[in-house]
Specification:
- The protein has about 425 residues and is an alpha/beta fold.
- It folds into 2 domains: about 220 residues, Rossmann fold, CATH 3.40.50.11720; about 190 residues, Glycogen Phosphorylase B (Rossmann fold, 3-Layer(aba) Sandwich).
- About 50% of the residues lie in helices and about 15% in strands.
- It is built from 19 helices and 14 strands.
- β12, α15 and β13 form a beta-alpha-beta unit.
- α5 packs across α6, α6 runs parallel beside α8 and α10 packs across α14.
- The model has no long low-confidence stretch (mean pLDDT about 95).
């Protein structure tokens, strides 16, 4: 009888044709999915030339969350090369934008034994770090067999995800038991991981609290605010997901703020054209961020919206806004990271669906840096109230800094865990 991991691998082989179809399907909107396909199967045209410290950051959120940790690792291990692996083209692009040539970027291979073994033989990492919740059963097993300490850091696990992993209890338990260390963002996530089979789970907090807004982005935000119109109120809809823009536009019809400017930044760049079409369909005069960048100058008063069709400028958008809505929360996507907005001093509104960032949302609301609404109508009401009440908005602004500062420290705790394993792994050099 096949053991659970062998059965899992067998099912992966059955799905192989669909993997190529999925890449083709996604490439319709994002052609980059057809780039570097060999890497997804463990074939890499480049090597490091130095001992490798490997971090897996799936997409944009994880790549940005790792900033403080990567900076400290580069300082602590100057003779090593940081290797970032990604799953999505947007994550890879974010890695290039954030770190340039300071790190090496490739795709993590699909979880086929031959592919993950080729990856480990090629790069020979001294140790590996999986960010947030990335449980790849064959990869974890291959790291244990080859003696590569693999750590799961900044882990988050919602109740829904925990129930999903619990359906494959033995497979999940075996994988979590083979990890060298597990560190969770919250006590709730730690408890769920422990129930699933992880051992001695530490609680280190959320690395996103340790991110500092880059001064260049804050300066760009100041310039954007001038281009938007220094006297105008700016409402940012950040990281919006499919279907949310229509709900937001409906809600804004209930808001009466003279000269209010909506800046909408979709979560996924392949949706820029879709959101532009929606604005056109609604008859809303808008400009693209890329167009403003090329042409310069202040946008016209009759322009009601700006489409943020750029990558890597979210801190600047936050710095340019008076108030931000964090997407993925009006519809049941689970929410997005609100910490960056608060780090930039921008008060936050979120919808009811925040289970992927439940603890950060709870803390932000408790600190007075954020408000949670039930639906689009509630969002319109709070937006009207806050923009009509500068004193209340200033109070939320002042509470943002305290919220972020009081929750810092995850990077230091994570580095303490890494240090104990890095010393062991470096003995192999």
């Amino acid at each position: 009888m096949l053991n659970p991991r062998s059965f899992y691998t067998f099912m992966l082989w059955l799905l192989l044709p669909y993997i190529f179809l999925r890449l083709l399907w996604r490439a319709r909107r994002q052609p980059e999915y057809l780039h570097h396909i060999g890497e997804r199967f463990g074939f890499y045209p480049v090597s490091s030339g130095k001992p490798v410290i490997w971090l897996h950051t799936v997409s944009v959120g994880e790549t940005r969350a790792a900033q403080s940790l990567i900076a400290r690792l580069r300082a602590a291990y100057p003779d090593h090369r940081i290797l970032l692996t990604h799953t999505t083209p947007t994550g890879r692009a974010a890695g290039e934008q954030l770190y340039g040539d300071g790190v090496q970027r490739v795709y993590l291979p699909y979880d086929y034994p031959f592919a993950v073994n080729r990856f480990l033989r090629h790069f020979k990492p001294q140790f590996g770090i999986l960010m947030e919740t990335e449980i790849w059963f064959n990869l974890i097993h291959a790291c244990r067999v080859t003696g590569v300490p693999l750590l799961l850091l900044n882990a988050r696990l919602s109740e829904k995800s925990a129930r999903g992993y619990a359906r494959f209890a033995r497979l999940t338990r075996d994988a979590l038991g083979e990890l060298a260390a597990v560190a969770a963002q919250t006590a709730d996530a730690a408890a769920r991981l422990s129930v699933l089979g992880a051992k001695d789970v530490a609680v280190t907090g959320n690395l996103k609290f340790d991110i500092e807004p880059p001064p260049a982005m804050l300066e760009l935000g100041r310039r954007l605010h001038e281009q938007f119109g220094a006297a105008r109120r700016v409402f940012l809809a950040a990281s919006t997901r499919d279907g949310e823009e229509a709900l937001l536009l409906d809600a804004l019809q209930q808001v009466h703020i003279p000269g209010l400017l909506l800046v909408v930044v979709p979560r996924h760049p392949q949706r820029f054209a879709e959101v532009a079409a929606l604005l056109e369909q609604r008859g809303i005069p808008f400009r693209r961020r890329s167009e403003i960048e090329r042409q310069g100058g202040t946008i016209a008063q009759e322009t009601s919206a700006v489409l943020g069709d750029s990558m890597g400028e979210m801190f600047a958008y936050y710095a340019a806004a008076d108030l931000a809505f964090i997407g993925g929360s009006l519809l049941p996507y689970g929410g997005q990271n609100l910490i960056e907005a608060c780090a930039a001093g921008t008060p936050v509104l979120v919808g009811p669906y925040t289970h992927n960032f439940a603890e950060a949302t709870r803390l932000a609301v408790a600190a007075g840096a954020a408000m949670q609404v039930r639906d689009g109508g509630g969002l319109a009401m709070e937006l009207q109230r806050l923009l009509d009440n500068p004193e209340a908005l200033r109070e939320m602004h002042s509470r943002c800094a305290g919220f972020v500062e009081s929750n810092r420290g995850a990077t230091d705790k994570s580095l303490q865990i890494i240090a104990s394993f890095s010393k062991k792994s470096f003995l192999r050099l």
